[in-house]
Amino acid sequence: MFYHVKELQYHAKPERPDPVFARKLQEILGGQFGEISVALQYLFQGWNTRGDGKYRDMLMDIGTEELAHIEMLATMIARLLDGAPDVELDEAAKNPFVAAILGGSNPQHSIVSGLGAMPADANGNKWTADYIIASGNLLADFRANLNSESQGRLQAVRLYEQTDDRGVKDMLSWLIARDTMHQNQWYAACLELEAKENIVVPSTFPRELEKQEVAYTFYNNSAGTKSAKGRWAHGPSIDGLGQFNYFENPVPFGEKPKLNPAPPYIHDTPPAALRKSDDMPDPDMK
Amino acid sequence: MFYHVKELQYHAKPERPDPVFARKLQEILGGQFGEISVALQYLFQGWNTRGDGKYRDMLMDIGTEELAHIEMLATMIARLLDGAPDVELDEAAKNPFVAAILGGSNPQHSIVSGLGAMPADANGNKWTADYIIASGNLLADFRANLNSESQGRLQAVRLYEQTDDRGVKDMLSWLIARDTMHQNQWYAACLELEAKENIVVPSTFPRELEKQEVAYTFYNNSAGTKSAKGRWAHGPSIDGLGQFNYFENPVPFGEKPKLNPAPPYIHDTPPAALRKSDDMPDPDMK
Amino acid sequence: MFYHVKELQYHAKPERPDPVFARKLQEILGGQFGEISVALQYLFQGWNTRGDGKYRDMLMDIGTEELAHIEMLATMIARLLDGAPDVELDEAAKNPFVAAILGGSNPQHSIVSGLGAMPADANGNKWTADYIIASGNLLADFRANLNSESQGRLQAVRLYEQTDDRGVKDMLSWLIARDTMHQNQWYAACLELEAKENIVVPSTFPRELEKQEVAYTFYNNSAGTKSAKGRWAHGPSIDGLGQFNYFENPVPFGEKPKLNPAPPYIHDTPPAALRKSDDMPDPDMK
Amino acid sequence: MFYHVKELQYHAKPERPDPVFARKLQEILGGQFGEISVALQYLFQGWNTRGDGKYRDMLMDIGTEELAHIEMLATMIARLLDGAPDVELDEAAKNPFVAAILGGSNPQHSIVSGLGAMPADANGNKWTADYIIASGNLLADFRANLNSESQGRLQAVRLYEQTDDRGVKDMLSWLIARDTMHQNQWYAACLELEAKENIVVPSTFPRELEKQEVAYTFYNNSAGTKSAKGRWAHGPSIDGLGQFNYFENPVPFGEKPKLNPAPPYIHDTPPAALRKSDDMPDPDMK
Amino acid sequence: MFYHVKELQYHAKPERPDPVFARKLQEILGGQFGEISVALQYLFQGWNTRGDGKYRDMLMDIGTEELAHIEMLATMIARLLDGAPDVELDEAAKNPFVAAILGGSNPQHSIVSGLGAMPADANGNKWTADYIIASGNLLADFRANLNSESQGRLQAVRLYEQTDDRGVKDMLSWLIARDTMHQNQWYAACLELEAKENIVVPSTFPRELEKQEVAYTFYNNSAGTKSAKGRWAHGPSIDGLGQFNYFENPVPFGEKPKLNPAPPYIHDTPPAALRKSDDMPDPDMK
Amino acid sequence: MFYHVKELQYHAKPERPDPVFARKLQEILGGQFGEISVALQYLFQGWNTRGDGKYRDMLMDIGTEELAHIEMLATMIARLLDGAPDVELDEAAKNPFVAAILGGSNPQHSIVSGLGAMPADANGNKWTADYIIASGNLLADFRANLNSESQGRLQAVRLYEQTDDRGVKDMLSWLIARDTMHQNQWYAACLELEAKENIVVPSTFPRELEKQEVAYTFYNNSAGTKSAKGRWAHGPSIDGLGQFNYFENPVPFGEKPKLNPAPPYIHDTPPAALRKSDDMPDPDMK
């Protein structure tokens, strides 16, 4: 169960309205790695955690914090849209500032949301749960989380560079710092579980049931062998159970696939038509 | 540019048809962490890599391999659907086997794809590029890749457990082994870059521009403090630049947000209507 | 900002596992009118409310409650999936119970989420922000909310009828009661605003700027006039500003649309080709 | 079955082309509350109506009218795109008018649709049936319809304010008037059904089966009690069957959820790994 | 503008309810090539046709007919769902008929739509305008339409084979016949335009502006040359302007792509980190 | 199985960066008829082809070529984004060039992809497998392919006209020429199969099972008869099995649909409420 307090976790006040930046800021609210994504990702992982208090508690704590970040961004975006002008093409004809607003802002902010934030990204794509991950395996999911915080901080930093508004920068510097913490946190959580399970997810599948002869092989599927220079191509594997090896000229292990014809009720191309297609001489058969 | 060879990378022959398992297997072909996702994710990361041969080459190599995995799964699914019966409710009434097929198979396999594989997941959701990630920052993206291979291997293992078909298990044991390699590979690539950049992505943003006072703080946003037991709550941070600390009773740093009224052309609730809403005594004002 | 308490708002314990009902219950968690929809709808409406404390406070209160409902449903679904069997087609051949589970459960529950709840509906469609509404106009949005609670209660009641599990029924009877309150609540809020604004949204657009001659007309666009029997066809309009009237045989007020040709860079069908299409005698021109 | 007449229901002729406004106008053609949404929503409700002539007839009448509105908007958008210039960045460098067009128009109008209308919103998101509602319960659905017409008129009014083109304004004043009628109409239809059924949907579920003790309670889930001022917090409930009451400090009725471990074939985090996570002292256990 | 008549274009009465077939039939109502797709595709093509009466009239005629097909299918599906039983897992345990219904029907038919048709496909994916095509170029679009009717008739035929219900078969035999007409019709329309424009769309782009040396070349991008047997590999091209030729061993015409580094505000992997990645000996450089 | 060579199939070098055109070019990379669509469409058709070498080989050849086109476009887009400036509203105020870039470029290129190409269209909609087609019936699918290449070439030509960059035009002239070949190719393949099967897909459904009396009838569902002028309205049908005929005043063959009431557990509008709706006199009953 949740409670709400009316104060924001941190300030969300721009120096001045900027509807173009409001559109951009939507990315870290409602984009693939926006705050809605991390909030629901951590909460679902928490709710689905089976059997342990510590990880569940931690997931709920951070998921709950991300709800506060949604709130800060929604507030900031509404303020960046404050008094957004009602601009037309004729006015834009005279003024590059107006032209930039007409072109660079999200028209749905003035038509649909009434100058409020939307659960959507910088191109107006609505948020979708396709973005989030909760598998029940904590090590797998903590890696997903480490990625989310890495992508999220990267986007926040890119946005920080694209504005001069000190109020916006101030809020972003808070969110960037929290992402620093959260990258550290998920990294720490991964190390803790890897120390108990080794690094390959899931750790509980018997290794002898997989094709061990290809479990540490790098396939060079292209001309050139620059890819042989990496740590992944030689030496002991990271899980300590094998040796990396580099396969310079990979060959198929399987055969040419040949499918049986479909049953009649499927009404595929009739076999007779396919046979007639052999009327022309077949170069393979020469 | 690409070339195709007709042979499969590895065998893809089931012992017998099974339209219900064909539906399930769609998950690792066209689901969030299916082979289409990893193929296009690695290829886009490769195409977008700026300035270095080794990582780009490696990304193209593995992306190209994943195309071969799509091919194996598409072939296996078509074979699992081989001669799928044309079943009706009346027949199902007499036979649990028929009932299970009627209920458990994907109706689009017989109506839409003609007993072929589809670019969709186990519930028939079509594949979408919402699933994939390519940011231009290699460490961020390699973390995404480590996650993809972790989720992907987890799903392959769960599917391995849900069938007795030795042909299917044989193919899955190949794919599971490749995922073992790929987890090792991305882990190795991450370690290589972390050794050069430290662990926080992006490494190039000046640390003094973020709110350093909250860059290593865990906020306990719930009653109870089990979350204090983790590695993330005490001791030096993983990036070596701070000390984790645990904030047991977090408080807001911001203020109650108050938004200005919208301009008239937005036609929000009129201020007069809002004022009249104060006719009833306000308990806050007591 | 938000806090979490570990206890559930209400009990969420089924008598026994039932993976088929778990799939169905997803509808009111992650479907169009599921708890994710109402939670985010009310919170976004609250965050975007400009200028008044009472409605914003109320929206945040109820949005925060809906987060607790997501939590209850996620917990219930995980428990309904408890120990979900790993069933195969061969077993189903012998047993209608197994056949029903194989067919009626969501395969992603065992492949993707590890027997946890997913942010998706009863068919596995992922939740999308396409479902939610926040326009900045409170009367419009409260009507959206009244609809959401009506659809939501209807779905909960239908689900209540489709299970015999007393634990599930107990939880649903809680959620149904809350929906009773919430329908009453939004109805009350609508009445309050309608009393101040009249019923047509938005109330601030000057009535003389709309075509008043068709503002109270019902068009009977079909043969037969049963639609004339309704309250909407005769008598004073609900807003008190007009008289309903019934137009039995509506005719067009506009003209046949004729579009200019596209500029050459668009490469539409060339005008010459269109002209030649008049070679056959035109029956209209007779 | 349907017939088409070539004349438009009302005029759809702009004074002059304006590709930027064409993009905006897409919102009420193909957006969440655009004409495609209401047309298909009313038609599906009509087709699914079980057992009564009057409501079905009315739904078909209005759904058929909305098809005419799609046609008017499609025609208007094509005309606003008439002769849309083929503009480039170099030209934009010299001219804010060109810059505004380059930025503010929808590039798919010139690349994909050949300067025709698209079934998409102002940001180019394609229309989806996620937007529409048809439950079989008429009162629930009429509330959905009242909301749709409220949101739709609000958007039309906002667009009316964002153009000076008298032809566009003329068409919008027609659509706005029809939305006035349609809000009145659905309101009237709701009142009719509420008079027979009371206000809570569905009316046929036995009230004693819901938790009556919480069926009229407002939960104040936040600090501060401004939400107590509303009509929803005190006095008789709108359905006349209870008394609203305000719960200032809500507490959980449930318990902390604890989930059982998953079966082994799910390959979650192994219990041993979870146990070891207790190595650090647990602050809760102090 | 449109009118509706209450009678169906053709009968839509099943012999008996069958909720499993109702689910399957959704495919040709709300799937990729269902009746919603063709109705809106033809109507949008008609509304966007610039400058000619005959094709526009024809498009509107057939689009209007497809609306009648949506209506027939919606009616048929509602009847197949008539009195659909409220089945539970316990009952299914005893009865394969119940098990098949529990597994094979769409749960949203009983939870969401109240036993009515939905704008969705056989897997419950909601209809989306991603499915439809209207480019402004009539020859391109008539080819899209020929494809739609081919896929649509194929699906209707497959469904015809999967039921024994004479009422359903009767309706399908109507729809299949209409698809026969519509394939003939679009084929005829294509021939008419091809006679005026030649076969390559668009016909108005100057041929000398394309790389003519590769305009009739088949690239054999795989081992083996079975693909040389087709009409497309030898002889005069279909447009009569070239000779097909077969390139057995295609080679790249371009160079290895090398991208410049990103500007600093993008925060990609820092160049220094990339340089250090050359510490290991590069096999390409040997 | 696939191999990659590092060289591009053809050059992909613009004369100069242009972030606005980069956004537009996304359409033919990740839009409905972009290269991702054709690559995956042809590959899935190839993988699902049952029983014949020649068509499968040809499909794999061309699908593999399309992968090379994705690569060329991804490279070109990254170069068009090279050094894309980090522009702000304040700068735009002074300079229409900056205003155009701010408005006309895709903000996700600088926030999300790090100035790399994305699997998305010109409006930033992510690529989805909703776009592609693979039915197992080759004639149906080759028609889909002919359409794809027609739409694709049309879009490429429109883009060619919208830029002056000689490097971009050079690459487009390659892609346009390949589309010329591919239209010729699919046309040839269709002719080959039609010669064996006649033109109606599928050719294997017994014609006597369809309602032959309406298999060659054009229904004129609108006032006016311009549509009678086409080849489709008179003369022998294209399949040679019937005579086209024109039905000027079509009438319904079916009856008014009347649906039974839903069972009680569905909780639709109660029959009593519907009955009371007859209180007003019914004009139909006069």
Automatic annotation (TrEMBL), chains A, B, C, D, E, F:
<protein>
    <submittedName>
        <fullName>Mn-containing catalase</fullName>
    </submittedName>
</protein>
<feature type="compositionally biased region" description="Basic and acidic residues">
    <location>
        <begin position="275"/>
        <end position="286"/>
    </location>
</feature>
<dbReference type="InterPro" id="IPR007760">
    <property type="entry name" value="Mn_catalase"/>
</dbReference>
<dbReference type="GO" id="GO:0046872">
    <property type="term" value="F:metal ion binding"/>
</dbReference>
<feature type="binding site">
    <location>
        <position position="220"/>
    </location>
    <ligand>
        <name>Ca(2+)</name>
    </ligand>
</feature>
<feature type="binding site">
    <location>
        <position position="66"/>
    </location>
    <ligand>
        <name>Mn(2+) 2</name>
    </ligand>
</feature>
<feature type="binding site">
    <location>
        <position position="35"/>
    </location>
    <ligand>
        <name>Mn(2+) 1</name>
    </ligand>
</feature>
<keyword id="KW-0106">Calcium</keyword>
<dbReference type="InterPro" id="IPR039377">
    <property type="entry name" value="Mn_catalase_dom"/>
</dbReference>
<dbReference type="InterPro" id="IPR009078">
    <property type="entry name" value="Ferritin-like_SF"/>
</dbReference>
<feature type="binding site">
    <location>
        <position position="61"/>
    </location>
    <ligand>
        <name>Ca(2+)</name>
    </ligand>
</feature>
<feature type="binding site">
    <location>
        <position position="149"/>
    </location>
    <ligand>
        <name>Mn(2+) 1</name>
    </ligand>
</feature>
<feature type="binding site">
    <location>
        <position position="182"/>
    </location>
    <ligand>
        <name>Mn(2+) 1</name>
    </ligand>
</feature>
<feature type="binding site">
    <location>
        <position position="69"/>
    </location>
    <ligand>
        <name>Mn(2+) 1</name>
    </ligand>
</feature>
<dbReference type="InterPro" id="IPR012347">
    <property type="entry name" value="Ferritin-like"/>
</dbReference>
<feature type="binding site">
    <location>
        <position position="224"/>
    </location>
    <ligand>
        <name>Ca(2+)</name>
    </ligand>
</feature>
<feature type="binding site">
    <location>
        <position position="57"/>
    </location>
    <ligand>
        <name>Ca(2+)</name>
    </ligand>
</feature>
<dbReference type="Pfam" id="PF05067">
    <property type="entry name" value="Mn_catalase"/>
</dbReference>
<dbReference type="InterPro" id="IPR027407">
    <property type="entry name" value="Mn_catalase_C"/>
</dbReference>
<keyword id="KW-0479">Metal-binding</keyword>
<feature type="binding site">
    <location>
        <position position="222"/>
    </location>
    <ligand>
        <name>Ca(2+)</name>
    </ligand>
</feature>
<feature type="region of interest" description="Disordered">
    <location>
        <begin position="255"/>
        <end position="286"/>
    </location>
</feature>
<comment type="similarity">
    <text>Belongs to the manganese catalase family.</text>
</comment>
<keyword id="KW-0464">Manganese</keyword>
